[in-house]
Design goal:
The structure is a single chain. By secondary structure, the protein is of the alpha+beta class. It has helices at 12-24, 50-60, 64-67, 107-118, 223-234, 277-298, and strands spanning 3-8, 29-35, 45-47, 74-76, 78-82, 89-92, 99-103, 123-127, 130-136, 139-144, 147-151, 153-156, 167-170, 176-182, 191-196, 199-205, 210-216, 244-247, 250-253, 257-258, 261-263, 269-270.
């Protein structure tokens, strides 16, 4: 009998979860990707760490020389902190490792084709909006449109929660981000983190654009003040800024396990996104979820690719 697990969402956390469970679950499992094509993805460039590249390598045989261009990616050798001290300082990736930057709009389209090729009997897809999830005995009822699907487990990688009652909210310094993309290639091989008078700013190079985000606290700094300083920092007139804004809280779920409904990505945790720590956390949460499932369904199963 086939066992079924579903991953809701196709952002970075969703892709990592699909990569992990397609790779390590036994062959009698089907892994479903559920996504709503009408839900927009976050339109920024993303910085990664070596474990992210390793996950893609294990699941879809990702090769930097062959595949990086397909996700408009660039190499990352370090994180560079600018203006935090008198001199810039570097946080290199240790052990000769490297990571990548990539276009969040391109990643899932790339891995989807690879998942279909590498896991033809395991990888499944369902498009549509998930309107309800509930635990029912030994399975989860997942309502997509007018149809109810049953899964052994569901992993939510669905972005920021709408209700924070089941989360611990943390008072970190920033809660607002302005984003601007300059439409020319980035020519540096690191993730930049620049201190500003109102917070800090990330700088991410892609092959088709440069992605910048200005983070600040809107209870201290007005949006008008932030835009004026952002404009000055990246030397783009205020009138030409993209006017992309994100409001956020820093938080973590009080429990990532709700019966057979599991959480990862921003549905599980979000802290000020510096140095790609979130992707490292997502990777570790996938291991916790696998261990949780092993105790309930899989038996004593080691993490060995199948």
């Amino acid at each position: 009998m086939k066992h079924k697990i579903a991953v809701i969402g196709t952002g970075s956390a969703g892709v990592l979860a699909l990569s992990h469970f397609l790779t390590y679950l036994p062959k009698d499992w089907e892994v479903y990707s559920i996504y709503d094509p009408n839900t927009p993805r976050v339109g920024i460039g993303e910085s990664t760490n070596p474990s992210f590249v390793s996950s893609l390598d294990t699941s879809v045989n990702f090769q930097v020389l062959r595949d990086l261009e397909k996700i408009e990616g660039t190499i990352k050798y370090a994180t560079v902190f600018k203006n935090w001290r008198k001199d810039d300082f570097y946080h290199p990736l240790l052990g000769g490792n490297n990571a990548i930057h990539f276009n969040t709009h391109k990643l899932f389209d790339f891995v989807k084709d690879k998942f279909e090729e590498n896991f033809p009997n395991k990888f499944k897809q369902i498009q549509g909006y998930v309107s309800d999830l509930k635990n029912v005995g030994d399975h989860v009822e997942c309502t997509i449109g007018d149809t109810v699907h049953n899964f052994n487990y569901v992993i939510q990688c669905t972005g920021f929660p709408k209700d924070y009652s089941q989360y611990q909210v943390c008072n970190l310094p920033v809660n607002h981000c302005l984003v601007h993309n300059i439409k020319k290639p980035g020519d540096w091989e690191y993730t930049g983190h620049r201190a500003t008078k109102n917070g800090w700013m990330f700088e991410i190079p892609l092959t088709t654009r440069q992605s910048y985000g200005y983070l600040f606290n809107n209870t201290i700094t007005s949006i008008a003040e932030a835009k004026a300083d952002f404009s000055k920092e990246i030397m783009v007139p205020e009138s030409l800024l993209d006017n992309i804004e994100y409001k956020f809280k820093s938080y973590y779920a009080k429990d990532i396990f709700d019966g057979r409904i599991l959480k990862n990505g921003n549905a599980a945790i979000f802290f000020e996104p510096i140095s790609a720590t979130s992707l490292w956390l997502y990777d570790n949460i996938n291991r916790l979820l696998f261990a949780y499932m092993a105790g309930n369904t899989l038996g004593d199963t080691d993490l060995e690719p199948t």
